[in-house]
Amino acid sequence: EGNNGNNEEDLWIFGYGSLVWRPSFDFEEKKAGFIKGWARRFWQGSTDHRGVPGSPGRVVTLIPKEALEESCEDEETWGIAYRIAPGKVDEVLDYLDVREKGGYSRSTVPVFYKDANTPETTICQALLYIATLDNPNYLGPAETHAIVDQIFRSTGPSGPNR
């Protein structure tokens, strides 16, 4: 159902952070869903949107659960899957490649859905942007109070981090 940017068919994009509440691109439909094997963490630095060089903000990325030192009880990371029409794929990917340029790379994952009346089903294969652990803006783990303080005080070209 999904693709990695081949503009001859629909593309699904999975948002798990700011793309949930501010996608800022055209989409045909959206569905709530979840991915497996990843944990959402405020471990990525932002010097181009929510902070500046020397004083980065913190934004979310996904960390493979096997890379976490602490136990992670959540089996699912929920977000929104957006279906992009074939004629808009290149435009949306160009936009997202700029928006997510600060250390993020593309990956493809299955997105699932379930509720009280529906057994777990696959919605689609979707493209997502994750920050690689070796990118220059990766900040990694910190004490919760330090992360909260950094988010609270950081401001960048896109406004306050909070």
Describe the protein in words:
It is a single chain. The protein has 162 residues and is α+β, with helices and mostly antiparallel strands. Helix content is 15%, strand content 43%. The chain has three helices and nine strands. The strands form four sheets. The protein has a three-stranded antiparallel beta sheet. Strands 3-4 form a two-stranded antiparallel ribbon. It has a two-stranded antiparallel ribbon with strand order 6-7. A hairpin with a 2-residue loop joins strand 6 (104-115) and strand 7. It is globular, with a radius of gyration of 16 Å. 33% of the residues are buried. The model is unreliable at 1-7 (pLDDT under 50).
Give the tags.
162 residues, three-stranded antiparallel sheet, 43% strand, alpha+beta
Cα Rg: 16 Å
N-end to C-end Cα span:
36 Å
What is the chain-wise order of helices and strands?
Answer: EHEEEEHEEHEE
- Major sheet: arrangement of strands: 1-5-2
User: What fraction of the residues are assigned to beta strands by DSSP?
Assistant: 35-45%
User: Kindly state the mean pLDDT as a whole number?
Assistant: 88
| Share of residues in helices | 10-25%
Instruction: Please identify the structural class as seen in this structure.
Output: alpha+beta
The beta-strand count equals: 9
Runs in which pLDDT lies below 50 for 5 or more consecutive residues are: 1-7
Task: Sketch the major β-sheet.
Answer: 3 strands, antiparallel
| Total of DSSP H or I helical runs spanning 4+ residues | 3
Which word captures the global form?
globular
